[in-house]
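ugh ok fine here u go
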Amino acid sequence: MEVIKKAFYRSIPVMAGYIVLGIGFGILLHNAGYGVIWAAAMSVFIYAGSMQYVGIGLLTGGASIITTVITTIMVNARHLFYSISMIDKYKRSGKYKPYLIFALTDETYSLLCDDEDHSEETINRYRFFVSLFNQCYWVIGSVAGCLLGTVIPFSTKGIEFSMTALFIASFTEQWINSKNHIPALTGLGCTLLCLIIFGSDRFMIPSMLLITLILTLIRGREEKAS
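structure:
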């Protein structure tokens, strides 16, 4: 029970963001003509905030399977570089591993990347409940937004920027709480460089590949040094 309490208290900042962002997603989904079941199903089985926002356009536009797959890879490519640092953390997570991998969002990562103050016996349960609480917040927000959309008319102009705002908040929290700023600086530097070289329409994939390459090399050197 103590582990559950700690996980809940740790997840409260994400709760504030996920419920609001989930409501935004639910409203957009309702305005696109999809109901509560769709909102709940997408948040339970897809659980990828920015991709769910993009997914609304794919659904309404009748996108093909190939287009959907490519778009999903592009939108979620950022998961490649920060998941590298969680390989060792999740290596001995046992029965919790499948869900921990599935539920590793940007915000969950920001909470779990510095969680070494827990014992080896409780750490996996703690990570599981942090991940579970965060997804519950997202599901609750999505369903609530869809329900609100049925009774209250909303203007959806600008709602899509809410994901960008959450990413900025997560980055700021991680920067403040983490002593190692190399991953953050690597991400900023690579993204800016690729933005200049490839332009705003094509910088995402090259920057993710470059970030992944550099962090992999850094991790390899740290392992050799230790």
